Amino acid sequence: MAPMTYGTPEFYKEQFMDFVGDAQADHPEHGEALIQGFLLALDDWMQYHTTQAAHYGSLQERVRSAL
Known about the structure:
Elements: H1 9-20, H2 28-66
């Protein structure tokens, strides 16, 4: 298979195919784990960005007060 260009729909299709392929009828817990893992990943990224946004706000306040 030819390498996919990062960020293209085809690239993400290949990534998702690896995960979706784990959801098997004879192991329904894998599909549930796939969904839960996705939600956990979203939670982690939301927490990261919330923390980063607060940090940027703090930096902004410090810079504005110094000017």
